[in-house]
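Suppose you are handed a protein chain with no further information: no name, no annotation, nothing but its sequence. What can you learn? This example shows the usual starting point.
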Amino acid sequence: MINMIKADFYRIIRSKALYIAVFLLVLMLGISIYMVEPGMLGNAPVSSNQITEEITFNGVDSEEYDDMSMSDFRKAIVHADGYELDREIVAQNMNLYYIFIFIVAIVISADFSSKGVKNTLSSTISRKKYFLSKILFVNLLCLVLFFLNTYLAHFGNIIFNSKEISASLGTITKTTLLQLPPMLASVSILTGFAFILRKNSLFNTVTIPLILVFQIILSTSVMLLKIPEKFLNYELQSMFMSLAHNPSNKYISNSCLVCAIVVISFNVIGYMCFKKSEIK
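A reasonable first move is to predict its three-dimensional structure. Written in structure tokens, the prediction is:
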């Protein structure tokens, strides 16, 4: 298993897709830091405005910012009271789901498409060891990118904007640790689909729109089927946002439970599909 992980590491550091993923990560952070507001991909059922209180920047009503130039906006917001840009960026960590797609595609899906998995399994490596090594490597690599994103956002915000709109290092670290359950859940969803679909083209087709489609279905179900709105709080993107804004102990424990179910379910289903599949 260790040799497989080493081989994956050797392959991925030579993959252009990895550097594209890192470039996109840095680009998203750069835009958010320059614009002094977090970017968001997707359409979370629970918005940040529902989670945080309305912030007044230096006595200026938020609606007045629509008529401001970018320069005036930056000057006003870098001295805002109660605004922590790096924490708001971390609250949008569901954006990393699209970066994780690159990682899973390189490590797992590409192996199926290139027939590399057949060569690996024809040696002394069992399907169980193959599955576990891939899962472990993907999670470790995504974990590194996850924390890299946090600290780049934190220190980048301090350097280019102001300490006044930055959370403390301890706060930003605690926030990221609280988000580990939904982060692991999002990675498990991707790895599960990688082993279920086993083709790079299918994997990308399904996973890229997956979160947005699920959010639309969930929101529609709440409206049409009268499902309690509290279930919206446990959609992945909503969990990332809520866990970044002083969540209650009950919400943290419930989120961990939901994410644990997702992690176990997708790993078990992914392994069972891989175990029974015919590798060509």
